[in-house]
């Protein structure tokens, strides 16, 4: 990747009033001008990329008509799921691993090249589509390497102030037989930057969905989870519409 390339790709055409998706941590690309200084194998782990989310978002777009903006640049280059000025926008360590190339990094340059264009493009997508629901697709590691913390949930739903869609989805995934995290493996009340900005600020219901990475490592598993997510999203839309009609 070179610094003239877009930090994201978009798949599908948004249907006005429908559902759209975004995957902030789906990419593992590092611009040619940046040397992170870490072993190559770390770029395939959760500190660099939300494993499986690119495949899920792409299938949502291609099979289910849910247009998706999918990040290409790694979260180790800049975290697109943080606000400008956040101390963790460009991390110098992650889950016990030092990121030497980020020490003294030109954060403003990375923000201008990757973070702002990404969010400006998604803001435009939201404005044009006027969606009824936004899906934010993420994944999480089963075990934190630095602490040994176990994450037993199959899937989690995160939210900040607006939990209207999340509450419905939590019940829907539980009905499928999954162990569901309610604002787990971390709380959307502390980290919900993309949905705070593009969903809550616009009064749009949303689902921030976290799937455990060992469940979606294979393309076949990603396809199955995309189908499940699409089903739950439609159930959420129907339930929200029913409430509005009452």
Please render the helix and strand layout as text:
Elements: E1 8-11, E2 19-23, H1 53-64, E3 67-71, E4 93-94, E5 97-98, H2 107-129, E6 133-140, E7 155-158, H3 164-175, E8 180-182, H4 193-198, E9 206-212, H5 219-245
Parallel strand pairs: 2-3, 2-6, 6-9, 7-8
Antiparallel strand pairs: 1-3, 4-5, 7-9
Explain what you see:
There is one protein chain. With 246 residues, the chain is an alpha/beta fold. The chain has one domain: Aminopeptidase (3-Layer(aba) Sandwich). The chain is 33% helix and 16% strand. The protein contains five helices and nine strands. The strands form two sheets. The protein has a seven-stranded mixed sheet with strand order 1-3-2-6-9-7-8, with helices on both faces. A two-stranded antiparallel ribbon has the order 4-5. Helix 1 crosses helix 5 and helix 3 crosses helix 5. The longest helix has 27 residues. The N and C termini lie far apart (51 Å). Pfam families: FGase (PF05013).
The counted number of beta strands is 9
Would you list the SSEs in sequence order as H and E? EEHEEEHEEHEHEH
Unreliable runs, pLDDT <50, ≥5 residues?
A: none
CATH topology grouping: Aminopeptidase
Shape: globular
Could you report the average pLDDT, rounded to the nearest whole number?
Answer: 95
**Do you know the CATH architecture?**
3-Layer(aba) Sandwich
Helix content: 25-40%
Fourth-tier CATH superfamily name: Zn-dependent exopeptidases
Strand content: 15-25%
Cα end-to-end separation: 51 Å
Strand order of the largest sheet: 1-3-2-6-9-7-8
Radius of gyration: 17 Å
The tally of structural domains comes to 1
The secondary-structure class comes to alpha/beta
Largest sheet: 7 strands, mixed
Total helix count?
Answer: 5
CATH class: Alpha Beta
InterPro entries: N-FG_amidohydro, UCP029730
Protein name: N-formylglutamate amidohydrolase
